Amino acid sequence: MRNSTRILPTQDALKSVLFYDPSSGVFKWKETRPASRIGSEAGYIGCQGYLLIKLDQTTYKAHRLAFVYMTGSCPAQIDHIDGLRSNNAWDNLRACDYVENARNASIRKDNIFGVAGVGWHRRTGKWAARIRTGGRVLHLGLFSTIDEASEAYQNAKLKFGYHPNHGRPRSVAR
Predict the structure, then answer these.
(1) Residues 142, 146: Cα–Cα separation, whole Å
(2) Which of 17, 51, 153, 170 might form a disulfide with 62, Cβ 3.0–4.6 angstroms?
(3) Distance CA 81, CA 164 (A)
(4) Nearest to 8 by CA among 80, 68, 62, 54
(5) Widest CA span in the chain
(6) pLDDT, one tens digit for every residue, the chain (174 residues)
(7) In what order do the strands lie in the sheet with 58-61?
């Protein structure tokens, strides 16, 4: 489901059927629906971990509805600051561009060492640290220990504007 370009309901239409609590990020129904009652929580967690809400036969990601509810419009990219896709509290959502969103990603699934930006350099038998910036990969050096390489990456990450949460362990809770 690619709904970043999908037409979203207007703020007035949304507020007529749903109540959004900015502190908790919870949506509740203002009217009785076939599968829900007034005051019950709206939505369900989809397979990618996002809270999804169905309105008039169309399914929307709740974080996009939260932006419409609060501001009347919706940016192309929205970042969940804590990385938890189902946490739609207003202070956990930020409008951003693609690069900013990627700079707040959890560690990749295929990372076998458990440390972001660090890999084994087979030819030298050392740990290599690297970071992506400006569309290029910048080599940060070779290190004797994984901790030294990780420290180099952590320092570079802050220097190049990555979010402090970038490279955190993947969220297991949805």
Answers:
(1) 10
(2) 51
(3) 10
(4) 68
(5) 66
(6) 454 557 999 999 999 999 999 999 999 999 887 778 899 999 999 999 999 999 988 999 999 999 999 999 999 999 999 888 999 999 999 999 888 888 888 888 888 888 889 999 999 999 999 998 888 999 999 999 999 999 999 999 889 888 877 777 766 443
(7) 44-45, 51-55, 58-61
Place of tokens 């009652």: 37
In this structure, which amino acid lies at residue 119?
A: G
CB atoms within 10 A of CB 23: 8
Closest CA to 120 of 132, 110, 128, 112: 128
Which residues on neighbouring strands pair with residue 136, listed in sequence order? 133
User: By the 8 A CB rule, do 39 and 27 touch?
Assistant: no
Within 10 A of 43 (CB to CB), how many other CB atoms are there? 23
Q: Token match 């060492």: residue? A: 113
Residue whose C-alpha is closest to residue 128's, from 143, 147, 107, 112: 143
H helix runs in 38-145, sequence order: 62-71, 98-102
Torsion of CA 55, 59, 61, 67, to 10 degrees: -40
